[in-house]
């Protein structure tokens, strides 16, 4: 026989009769009439090619074949019921799952500390796996479940559910005392064109801005990681286009100056992205609510 020949309701009936040792009681538990339960058992007996239950005083007794089937059928029904019920709730205090998040290196530096602090308090056994993907791969990764959420300035990521977390803007970071810098003065177009720049390979938007401004030829350093750039800026005359809110942290040291410039594409929005497939999935919904609660506020995040 083939699994396609078995009606799930027949297995539920078999399990109920096996546990109760009585066809009438099993029928009552399942909301069936006694004749319907008897007819169902007859169908199952024909499919299995075994009597399954023998009439005895006060009820029925399982056959050896039924004894073999019973444990597996009960386990299968329990697994199915647990899987169906698992989608109804998510208890963060007991959860042990791993969430996968897309974040840039800038995003990790500014986003993960607050997130991990909150997770430690609310879901101490939950794990976070943060890894950047190519922007072209993010939507498919969200749909497939490879990613749970993505956070950042992701204008090329389409066909996802989105929630705008906050607004930010690009500025120019220079070392204090840079020869083109006049205290409190906005850089002119001419001054901007005299700057040499450093950028990070994975931050496509800043590279795109430099190309649009006709400044790609002024790119003197293309680094793999963002966190190396502040020290490089402090010791050279290189400039970096970067989100204002993370740059403000560097400026507090007094070694850097944040300068407005006629970039033309300064403003952007950091958003939370997820797949419509997992919109109602409780664990994903919990994580999204946590992110929105933590970061939809005046304190802004990097792209």
Explained architecture:
The chain has 303 residues and is of the alpha/beta class. It folds into two domains: 3-86, Arc Repressor Mutant, subunit A; 91-303, 3-Layer(aba) Sandwich (D-Maltodextrin-Binding Protein, domain 2), CATH 3.40.190. The protein contains eleven helices and eleven strands. It has helices spanning 8-20, 23-30, 34-48, 64-86, 105-122, 135-144, 189-194, 204-212, 229-235, 244-251, 282-295, and strands spanning 53-56, 59-62, 98-102, 127-130, 149-152, 161-175, 196-200, 219-223, 238-243, 256-259, 267-274. Strands 3, 4, 5, 6, 7, 8, 9, 10 and 11 form a nine-stranded mixed β-sheet that branches. α1 crosses α2 (23-30) and α2 packs across α3. The longest helix is centred in the N-terminal third of the chain and has 23 residues, at 64-86. It is rod-shaped, with a radius of gyration of 31 Å. The chain starts with 7 loop residues before the first helix and ends in an 8-residue tail after the last helix. Residues 298-303 have low confidence and may be disordered.
């Amino acid at each position: 026989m083939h699994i396609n020949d078995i009606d799930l309701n027949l297995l539920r009936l078999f399990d109920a009769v096996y546990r109760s040792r009585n066809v009438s009681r099993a029928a009552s538990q399942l909301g069936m009439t006694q004749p319907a339960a008897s007819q169902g058992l007859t169908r199952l007996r024909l499919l299995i090619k075994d009597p399954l239950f023998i009439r005895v005083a006060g009820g029925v007794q399982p056959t050896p074949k039924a004894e073999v089937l019973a444990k597996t059928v009960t386990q299968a029904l329990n697994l199915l019921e647990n899987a169906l019920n698992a989608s109804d709730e998510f208890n963060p205090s007991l959860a042990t799952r791993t969430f996968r998040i897309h974040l840039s290196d800038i995003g990790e530096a500014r986003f993960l500390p607050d997130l991990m602090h909150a997770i430690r308090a609310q879901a101490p056994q939950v794990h976070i796996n943060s890894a950047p993907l190519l922007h072209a791969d993010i939507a498919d990764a969200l749909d497939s479940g490879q990613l749970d959420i993505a956070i950042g300035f992701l204008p090329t990521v389409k066909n996802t559910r989105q929630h705008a977390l906050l607004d930010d803007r690009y500025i120019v970071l220079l070392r204090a005392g840079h020869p083109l810098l006049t205290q409190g003065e906005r850089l002119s177009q001419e001054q901007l064109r005299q700057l040499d720049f450093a950028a990070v390979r994975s931050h496509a938007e800043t590279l795109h801005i430099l190309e649009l401004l006709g400044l790609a030829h002024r790119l003197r350093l293309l680094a793999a990681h963002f966190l190396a750039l502040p020290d490089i800026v402090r010791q050279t005359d290189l400039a970096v286009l970067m989100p204002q809110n993370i740059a403000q942290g560097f400026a507090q040291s007094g070694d850097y100056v944040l300068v407005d410039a006629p970039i033309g594409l300064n403003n952007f929005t950091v958003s939370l992205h997820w797949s419509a497939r997992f919109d109602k999935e409780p664990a994903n919904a919990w994580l999204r609510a946590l992110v929105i609660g933590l970061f939809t506020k005046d304190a802004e995040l990097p792209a």
